[in-house]
Amino acid sequence: MKVLVLGGDGYLGWPQALYLSNRGFDVAVFDNLARRQFDLKHGFDSLLPIATLHQRIDRWRELTGKTIEHYHGDTRDYNALAHVLTEFQPDAIVHFAEQRSAPYSMIDREHALFSQENNVLGTLNLLYAMKEFTPDAHLVKLGTMGEYGTPNIEIEEGFIEIHHKGRSDKLPFPKQPGSFYHLSKVHDSNNILFCCKIWGLRATDLNQGIVYGAETLETDMDDLLATRFDYDQVYGTALNRFCVQAAYGFPLTIYGSGGQTRGYINVRDTVRCIELACLNPAKPGEFRVFNQITEWFSVADIANRVQKVAGEMGLTVDVDHLSNPRVESEEHFYSVKHTKLVELGLEPHLLDDDVIAGMIELAQHHRERIDPRLIKPTVNWRTHLNIVKEEPVFTTQVQ
Ligand code: NAD
Ligand code: USQ
C-alpha cells in the first residue's frame, strides 16, 4: 500500500512515516516546513534536537535500506498537490498538515485568519485534488476531540441518533469547539463529509485526543530519527509540558481549577491507529469518524500524577494554579465512546507511572535545552478581539 503523509515532518507525521515504512508500506512525506519556521521566527525549539528532514530520511535509508520519498510543498498550492498525487499515486493520504495549536490561533486576528486559511483551504484544496487525480484514494484526516467540546452527555463516535417530535435521524454529533484552531477542524469535517457525499470520496476523520510521549520503536533506533517534542506555551501540550516542567523544577502550570478533562493517547498508539485506518479503508462515498483516544484525565489528575512520580524520582515539584488564559469549562462532565479502533485491533498503551517517569527522564537528559522563558502562558483567549493593540498580546517572554 502506498501512503502519502501530509505534514510528515511534524511531531506525529514523522514517527508515522517511519512506522509505516518499517511495516512495508511505500511511504512519501509532504511538508512545507512551516512548523520549523515558526520556531526559527520566535526563538522556540523542540526539547529533543531534531535533524533536518533530509538527514532523517537519509539515516532511515542507511539503517534499514528503506526509502521514504520527500516532497516539499504546501497544501494550499494546488500545483504542488497535483504533482505529488499524480507522481506518487497514493492508496491512502494521511493528512496531518495543519496549524495545530489552539493558543497560536488565539494570538490575534492575523493568527486566527492564518489558522483557518491554512487548515480549511488547504484541506478543501486537497479534496479537489483527490477528486481530480486520485478519486479512489482513502483520506485519513487528523481531526480533534476538541471539535466536540465538553457537552453534558456522552460523546458518541461522530454521529448521534436524535429523536425529535416523533421522527428520528442519525446526525453528526453537535460541535462546540473552544478555539479558532478547533473550529478549523469542524469546518474541515463538514467539508470532507460533503465531498464524500457529492463526489463519492472515501474518508476517515480521526478525532484525536492530546498526544503524549516522543518515543516509538523507530524513533528510538537513532538520535537522527527523533521526533520533535514541544513544551512551550504555544505548541506544548499538557502532559508533555508538565514532565518538562517537573524535570526543570518549574511549578506545574495548571490553568484555573484543573477540572478540564480531555482524552489522551500515547504516540505509540497514534501510529498504530492510523495504520489500522489505512488497512481498513472507508468505502467509496463513506465518511467515517473514529474517536482516537485511549483514556481521559483532568488536568489536575495529570499534574498530581506527574508530581507524585517526580517525587519518587527525588524531584521536588510544586503545582501552581494560574489564572486560566483560556475560556473553557473548568468543571464538567466528560465521557467518550471510543470503541471503533479497538474493534479494528488497537491494543492501548495506557498511561502508567513508568511512562511518566520515562518522559521526565527524557526531559532531564535534555535539561540544558529547556528554556524557562517559554513555559508561562501569554496568549489570552479574551484579548484577541482587541482592534487596537496597546501592547503585544503575544510574547515569548515570561510576564
Ligand atoms: P506539527 O505542527 O508538529 O506538525 C504539522 C506539520 O504539518 C508540520 O511539519 C508543518 O510544517 C506541516 N504543515 C502545516 N501546514 C502545512 C501546509 N499548509 N502545507 C504543508 N505542510 C504543512 O503537529 P502535530 O502535533 O504533528 O499534529 C499533526 C496533526 O494531528 C494536526 O492536524 C493536529 O491538529 C492533529 N492532532 C495533534 C494532536 C497533538 O496532541 N499533537 C492531537 C490531536 C490532533
Ligand atoms: N492546560 C493547562 N496547563 C498547561 C497547558 C494546558 O492547564 O500548561 C490545559 C488547557 O487549559 C486545556 C487542557 O490543558 O484545558 C489541554 O490543553 P493542551 O494545550 O494540552 O491541548 P489543546 O490546546 O486542546 O490542543 C492539543 C493539540 C491539538 C489537539 C488537541 C486535542 O495542540 O493539536 O487538537 O490537543 S483535544 O484537546 O482533544 O482537542
Q: What key phrases describe this protein's structure?
A:
399 residues, 3-stranded mixed sheet, globular, disordered C terminus, binds sulfoquinovose-uridine-C1,5'-diphosphate
Which CATH architecture of the domain at 2-217 and 265-296 and 334-350 would you pick?
3-Layer(aba) Sandwich
- Would you tell me the structural class of the helices and strands? alpha/beta
How many angstroms does the end-to-end distance come to? 50 Å
Determine the fraction of residues in helical runs and give it as a percent range. Answer: 25-40%
Which ions and ligands are bound to the chains? Answer: nicotinamide-adenine-dinucleotide, sulfoquinovose-uridine-C1,5'-diphosphate
What's the shape? globular
The Cα radius of gyration reads 20 Å
**Helix and strand pattern:** EHEHHEHEHHEEEHEEHEEHEEHEHH
Strand order of the largest sheet: 3-2-1-4-5-8-12
The CATH superfamily of the domain at 2-217 and 265-296 and 334-350 is identified as NAD(P)-binding Rossmann-like Domain
**Strand tally, please?**
14
Task: Return the CATH topology of the domain at 2-217 and 265-296 and 334-350.
Answer: Rossmann fold
What fraction of residues sit in β-strands? 15-25%
Number of helices: 12
Query: What is the CATH C-level name of the domain at 2-217 and 265-296 and 334-350?
Result: Alpha Beta
